[in-house]
Design a protein that fits this description.
Blueprint (H helix, E strand, L loop, with lengths): L4 E4 L10 H17 L3 E7 L3 H7 L5 E6 L8 H11 L6 E5 L2 H14 L3 E11 L8 E8 L4 E5 L6 E5 L14 E5 L29 E5 L6 H14 L2 E4 L1 H5 L20 E5 L5 H4 L7 E6 L12 E4 L2 H16 L1
Parallel strand pairs: 1-2, 1-4, 2-3, 3-9, 4-8, 5-8, 10-11, 10-12, 12-13, 13-14
Antiparallel strand pairs: 5-6, 6-7
Helix pairs in contact: 3-4, 5-8
Length: 329
């Protein structure tokens, strides 16, 4: 097997690798060991130093592409830089299954002429004994989690988007090396960075949070959102949304969970006024514990909840918040 296995890295607001990026780096290292090749994590950013040092604990080699500040906020520019740096022809490229990761995977597929397997829930290397070329075997959840499939690339080479929790992030026995590569001047992307928000003003990352409180159509408006945020604060969790709540303008797209949003795997998921449509469930069904509050006893999410509370969220949530605050005193 020639060519390395790469993991593409996303950074959080503090310019550190996301938990999903550390999981992808671990997966790259594990697959590379099974394939008898090398592994690397690649970062394209304007200030990658701290992230690169953190990643070196998880993978044998960290490749840094330093972006000009004026395009550092552009995912298109970052993906283009990664494609250019891929001249060493990686066999497999792992990308987190986030909105940004899916965009990156699409750009890399077009630039490198590779196929894509999406939303991997499991990864393993096959030496080709089953008649297929040597390469990764990718387990994927389909039909809203009702079935699992295993797929492979026809030529053993391609791009894989990896769901949170598909791999457990584990440091390597030996720290890796960090190297910076130079690429030709990037072409204009049409995207210009006009400002940045301090990490302190951002919402907590829903991918990193162990408790996620999600609001749906049942919130009814800003009043319901205020209750949602109170509950998340009392639990020490992050706020998320369904597409219905985002489309209504109550909550931002950045925290949307589901097929067209983000995939999360918290220890506790709390759905408030969430019906549980299949498009939403694919983004949260791997939560360890699912709690839901809904006035409809027959809402689809009831079938998947470990604890289902039937009633008016405008009565239940304030009572829960008051109980949590009383316990904390």
């Amino acid at each position: 097997m020639s060519g390395p296995i790469w993991a593409v890295v996303e950074l959080d607001p503090d310019r550190l690798p996301t938990r999903l990026s550390l999981e992808a780096a671990t997966a790259a290292r594990t697959l590379a060991a099974a394939a008898g090749t090398s592994s690397a994590a690649i970062i394209a950013a304007s200030d990658p130093g701290t992230a690169a040092a953190a990643l070196a604990a998880f993978v044998a080699r960290v490749v840094v592409v330093r972006l000009p500040a004026e395009v550092a906020g552009s995912n298109v520019a970052a993906a283009g830089a990664i494609a250019t740096a891929a001249a060493e022809d990686p066999v497999v490229i792992l990308v987190g299954a986030t909105p940004e990761g899916r965009e990156t995977a699409g750009i890399l597929a077009a630039r490198l002429g590779r196929g894509v397997l999406g939303n991997a829930t499991g990864l393993a290397w096959s030496g080709g004994a089953d008649g297929a070329p040597a390469g990764p075997r990718v387990e994927m959840s389909v039909l809203g989690g009702r079935a699992l499939t295993t797929s492979a690339f026809a030529d053993g080479r391609g791009i894989i988007t990896v769901r949170p929790g598909a791999v457990t992030a584990e440091p390597a026995d030996v720290a890796g090396t960090v190297e910076e590569v130079s690429i030709p001047t990037l072409p204009a992307t049409g995207v210009r960075t006009v400002g940045r928000a301090d990490a302190a003003t951002r919402r907590a990352s829903i991918e990193e949070a162990s408790i996620v409180v999600t609001g749906g159509r049942g919130l009814g408006g800003p009043g319901g959102v205020a209750l949602l945020e109170e509950l998340a604060g009392a639990l020490g969790g992050a706020v998320a949304a369904t597409r219905a709540a985002v489309d209504a303008g109550w909550l931002p797209f950045a925290i949307q969970v589901g097929q067209t949003g983000r995939t999360i795997r918290p220890s506790v998921y709390v759905g408030v006024g969430v019906s549980g449509a299949i498009q939403h469930r694919v983004g949260m069904q791997d939560a360890e514990t699912i709690v839901a509050i809904n006035r409809d006893p027959d809402a689809p999410i009831a079938e998947h909840a470990d604890l289902y509370v039937v009633g008016d969220l405008f009565e239940i949530v304030p009572a829960v918040v008051a109980a949590l605050r009383a316990r904390a005193t």
